[in-house]
Amino acid sequence: MSHDPTRSPARRPRRLASLIVVLLTVLLAPGGAAPAQEATPIAPIGAGTGGASVPCGERLGIGDATVACLTIIHAAADAGPVDLSVDGAVLLTGVAAATSTGFFALPAGSYDLTVTASGQPETVLLDLPDQPLEAGTAIEVALVGSQDDSTLTGLVLPVAPPAPAMGDASVRVVQAIPDAPPLDIGLETGETLIAGLVPLTASDYLTVPAAATSVVVRPAGAAEVLFPVPGFTPLAGGTLTIYALGTVTNPTGITLLTVVVPG
């Protein structure tokens, strides 16, 4: 990864030299562009819905209340390593497939975010001009889809679940398997938690107990299990995004990538 403090002369001055790049550990378990959503503060630490929101920089330990927090998730089925540029300046290089950069901090503002093939700035895979990053908010930007079938696109996902009750956590699933049918995610007992999640979309947040949980993935409305999601334990008061990525044509290559924000 590299950090280039220069800025594009065509853009208003940026304090890129002040960028704080702090990587969090991200767990990797075996197993037409989307519109940006308005960012809102991530869920507060602690129980109930009455507590004050904690700015992402403080919650993640990467800055103060004035910064925004961003992570890039490379969940494309067949794209090689990628680079991230911010306002034309290369910030991160060589982000491998099926990985996350971890959260890093940027001063609040609007940025041109560009994802290119690594070392090939002319090969633009994702272009998000004037992406707003508000102080205190956290956003996941995911590269999903497939280059081969021209479904490569981006998801801009605010980390903004409802505040969980004491002992609970918030979990959502991103269906990043481009050739999969709509999927149901449910318990082994047959109960469906998320129904009909179509490719290259994200579910709403679910509130779940912060305890070991195992779920299975089925074609929507069917009993057949496509693959299990191994046991995971979300952190009380935290948020967890599970990315299912790979292709149905190569089921042994389906993997799960988790992005965690602690409580």
Key structural traits:
single chain; 263 residues; mainly beta; 6-stranded mixed sheet; 5-stranded mixed sheet; 2% helix; 47% strand; disordered N terminus; DUF4397 domain-containing protein; DUF4397
Structural summary, described in words:
Residues 70-185 form the DUF4397 domain. InterPro entries: DUF4397. This is DUF4397 domain-containing protein. The protein is an all-beta fold and 263 residues long. It has one domain (16-261). 2% of the residues lie in helices and 47% in strands. Strands 1, 11, 14, 15, 18 and 19 form a 6-stranded mixed β-sheet that branches. Strand 7 (109-117) and strand 8 (120-133) form a beta hairpin. Mean pLDDT is 80; it is low at 1-51.
Beta-strand percentage range: over 45%
- Count all strands and give the number: 19
Main sheet summary: 6 strands, mixed
The global form is flat
Helix content: under 10%
Helix count? 1
User: Which stretches are low in confidence, meaning pLDDT under 50 for 5 or more residues running?
Assistant: 1-51
Number of domains: 1
N- to C-terminal distance: 28 Å
Overall pLDDT level: 80
Q: Which oligomerization state do the chains in this entry correspond to?
A: single chain
Q: Order of SSEs, N→C?
A: EHEEEEEEEEEEEEEEEEEE
Radius of gyration: 18 Å
What structural class results from the helix and strand content?
mainly beta
Protein name: DUF4397 domain-containing protein
InterPro entries: DUF4397
Pfam family, one: DUF4397
